[in-house]
Amino acid sequence: MTTEIENKKYQSILYEMATPGVAKIVLNRPDALNAFDGKMQQEVTQALRIAKDAAEVKVVVITGAGRAFCAGQDLVASPASLTDIENWLRTMYRPMLQALDTLGKPSLAMVNGVAAGAGMALAIACDFRVASTKAKFITAFAKIGLVPDSGMSYNLPRLVGVGRAQEMLSLGRDLTADEAINWGLVTRVAAPEELEARTLEMANYLANSPLLAYKMTRSMLHQSLDLSLDEALTLEEKNQGIAGSSHDFHEGIAAFQTKRAPVFKGE
Ligand code: LHQ
User: N or C: more exposed end of the chain, with fewer CB within 10 A?
Assistant: First the structure.
């Protein structure tokens, strides 16, 4: 497998196959709570692009090494990030967020500990989040005089609503895992020792699901808030036409009629 060869190129992450079909990206600067040092954003971007093109990868899981998921921008080791933030965001974060958005495969954040600032932004840019009971969600930006970035102003209100997003961003409201699940910010909460198993359970379910339909569904949901009902109905008709002529639809019908489990191909 290419995994070991790839790992030699990485300094701030690990990239490996967790199970057949499921690639895992580990943010790997545990001494700095996996804070983004520039290199890390570039390596995550690179790993996401590799995962996108790899036929054997159906789902991507992102997690952190050690006790944290990610503490956001490294506020010590990357002076350039503090002198020209606009350029830093454009060159370091934008490619990573766009690589995630155009992955074309389900992404899961396995939130093992604190997710702060751009680290929380990365977690909420993933399609799903499984959080350890030790996880904490901290927007952090306002505490250092900043506005939300890395897609947080876009993704947070979509997940929790504008009022709650405002509360987290402007009133410094941090969330525990239990609060996050009540707010709809995470999909599942697991004990730390069960986190990986619960995450892989969900990842494996997705890996065996009709991934063409997944991809179109995700795109439809992302567009939905900006469409009129008429436009949404048109998009549904068009995409259902495509899904309805897919291998997976015919397989789904055949499996139902013969009372067996479907075997989807994502085609
Ligand atoms: C860190 C960091 C860190 C370096 C912990 N950097 N070392 C984009 C573009 C450009 C500019 C700015 O921002 C952005 C987007 C953003 O992400 S803004 C938000 C940046 N992040 C933060 O403001 C969070 C800062 N960290 C914290 O508030 C705390 O560390 C949290 C709440 C995450 C965890 O607290 P504790 O569990 O109490 O851990 P700790 O504070 O003791 O940290 C452990 C170590 O990790 C410590 O180092 P040390 O050598 O003393 O053991 C920290 O300095 C280091 N660390 N976050 N972002």
Answer: N
Under a CB-based contact definition with an 8 Å cutoff, are residues 22 and 204 in contact? yes
Pocket of ligand 1 (CB under 6 A): 32-33, 35, 71-76, 81-82, 85, 88-89, 114, 116-118, 138, 140-141, 144, 146, 149
Residue 9, pLDDT score? 83
Name the CATH superfamily for 4-207. 2-enoyl-CoA Hydratase; Chain A, domain 1 (3.90.226.10)
Paired residues of 17 in beta bridges: 23
User: Domain ranges in the chain?
Assistant: 4-207, 211-258
Model confidence over 18-74: pLDDT tens digits?
A: 999 999 999 999 999 999 999 999 999 999 999 999 999 999 999 999 999 999 999
Q: Are strands 175-176 and 136-138 parallel, antiparallel or unpaired?
A: antiparallel
Give the model's pLDDT for residue 7.
61
CA of 98 to the centre of ligand 1 (A): 24
143 Cβ contact list (under 8 Å, min separation 6): 172
Q: What is the pLDDT of residue 6?
A: 56
CATH superfamily for domain 211-258: Lyase 2-enoyl-coa Hydratase, Chain  A, domain 2 (1.10.12.10)
CA 226 – ligand 1 centroid, Å: 35
